Amino acid sequence: MTGIVGYGTKIPRYRIKVEEIAKVWGADAPTYKRGLNLNEKSVPAPDEDCATLSVNAALNALKRAEIDPADIGAVYVGSESHPYAVKPTGTIVSEAIGACPYVHTADLEFACKAGTEGMFIALNLVKSGAVPYALAIGADTSQGAPGDALEYSAAAGAAAFIMGTDNLIAELKDTHCFMTDTPDFWRREYKHYPEHGGRFTGAPAYFKHVTGAVDAILGKTNMKPDDFKYVIFHQPNGKFPVLVAKKLGFTEQQYLPGLLSPTLGNTYSGSSPMGFAATLDIAMPGELILLISYGSGAGSDAFIFETTKRIEEVRDRAPKLKTQLDEHKIYIEYGTYAKFRKKILVPN
Amino acid sequence: MQVPRYWREIPKRYRLEAAQCKKCHNISFPEKFSCPECGSQDFKTIKLSGKGKISTHTIIRIAPEGFNDQVPYGMGIIEMDEGPRIMAQITDCDPEKLKTGDRMIYQFRRIREDGSTGVIMYAYKFVPDVGI
Q1: Do A169 and A3 form a contact (C-beta atoms < 8 A)?
Q2: Domains detected in chain B
Q3: What CATH fold (topology level) applies to the domain A3-168+318-340?
Q4: Opening angle at CA B91, ends B89 and B93, nearest 5
Q5: B106: closest CA of chain A, how far (Å)
Q6: Which of A7, A45, A133, B25 would you call most buried, defined as having the most Cβ atoms within 10 angstroms of its Cβ?
Q7: What residues does each domain of chain A span?
Q8: Separation between Cα atoms, residue A100 and residue A91, nearest integer Å
Q9: Touching check for B15 and chain A: CB below 8 Å?
Q10: What is the mean pLDDT of chain B?
Q11: 3-state SS string over A136-205?
Q12: Nearest Cβ partner of B110 from A11, A47, A59?
């Protein structure tokens, strides 16, 4: 058997409301809230970045996995906001959790799909027997250009999963990928903010790839939407995942537990992995979960997991995602947000 | 800070690695050449739990270079549950509300960077232990 032995998340404490951003740019907040189903988003503190969120999420995953971190043979960090252009985030994470030196590490990048890319590689690596455990992390401190629609959703957070072959909390049943060359969102080298294709990010990009991955894995496994207790989609906003869920025949009961973007925002590489973690926080043994990511560029990874009895034993050993999301929030105004996200020019 | 020094201190800065005297079991953080209690030079490496409480603290309003974007922030001596006291920045909170005895927990955070082209330094900080 191959699957997940531990998972953990990290969300910054700071939040900014849609109204606060709209006020600065003269936009109509109700339009954004209603149109994109977004209310607020997480904001990283000045001392948080992709590496710190990854480490703190991974340490929570270790609390649930109860393994010696030195037994982790591979660490993969998926992000589009790695702190260095050249120097791996994975080495920082591996060193901080105590996995060094006998560990293979790589940083991955595929817009919002980089987190599940790491999960795909980690699961197949432990399945092959190459390493006893592999850690996969999706983490981002994403940036939207000031005033752009993305500024209302670009958020920060991380989810970490330790894969193994015994003491599983969720067994991997199957995977499938769906990928084409579709330039719907990109960031060129040396550029601070990404560019996107506006409405082109919808039908030919998000919806085509998510639907393609779901259709493919359901066809491969001869399953149908009502076979699953839960489903988690990538969440660039609060609207797209709901639309695609309904289009594919999934119900509110299936997608709501993993739908975080209305109060979290889009955590990019962390987005669908964090929705998956929130679902694991409430899932009972023997339940089937369908996870589908989406990364611009573009592609989707689909996974089917079945929870085991161990899920109930370990879930309280680390903070649950909803606790991190809903409790002890610190709201900031746009000026503080602009300072935290280094949008203000200051002398050296 | 020089890169080699930062690199040398990674075990304690990242993982809170301390030295426990094999003779009297006293724990030193950071590690010492000889045990301050019994003078032994025979230690084993242990990892602190990352949990403790505020022993004393202050609020930094005029920050050193590299910390200006975080003022006001708490700076305190955290008494770890294992005994050692660690001076550290206290983040993710209103520093005006901190008080002696408050429970604190380790977080891995960015400390500073050597300009826009230099190395980024990471280490422990502490946050109020509110279960998140």
Answers
A1: yes
A2: 3-128 (2.40.50.840)
A3: Peroxisomal Thiolase; Chain A, domain 1 (3.40.47)
A4: 135
A5: 9
A6: A7
A7: 3-168+318-340, 170-311
A8: 8
A9: yes
A10: 96
A11: EEEEEECCCCCCCHHHHCECEEEEEEEEECCCCCEEEEEEEEEEEEECCEECCCCCCCCEECHHHHHHHH
A12: A47
Q: For this complex, say whether ipTM is above 0.90.
A: yes
Cβ contact A14:A43 at 8 Å:
yes
pLDDT on residue A348 = 64
Structure tokens at B132: 């998140």
Hey, is the C-beta of B87 within 8 angstroms of any chain A C-beta? no
For residue A199, what pLDDT is reported? 87
b/e per residue, B61-75, with b = 16+ CB within 10 A?
eeeeeebebbeebbb
For B11-119, strand residue ranges (E) read: 17-21, 27-28, 43-47, 51-60, 73-80, 85-90, 103-113
Locate A59 and state its tokens: 């340490």
SS3 B131: coil
Give the CATH number of domain A170-311; options: 3.40.47.10, 1.20.1530.20, 3.40.190.10, 3.40.50.2300. 3.40.47.10
Bridging pattern class, strands A104-108 and A72-78:
parallel
Tokens found for residue B5: 């020094």
The answer on pLDDT for B1 being more than 80 is no
Q: Mean pLDDT per 10-residue run, chain A (348 residues)?
A: 98 98 97 94 98 98 98 98 97 98 98 97 98 98 93 97 98 98 93 90 96 98 98 97 98 98 98 98 98 97 98 98 98 97 87
* CB-based contact A48 B110, cutoff 8 Å: yes
Residues A47 and B109: beta-carbon distance below 8 Å: yes
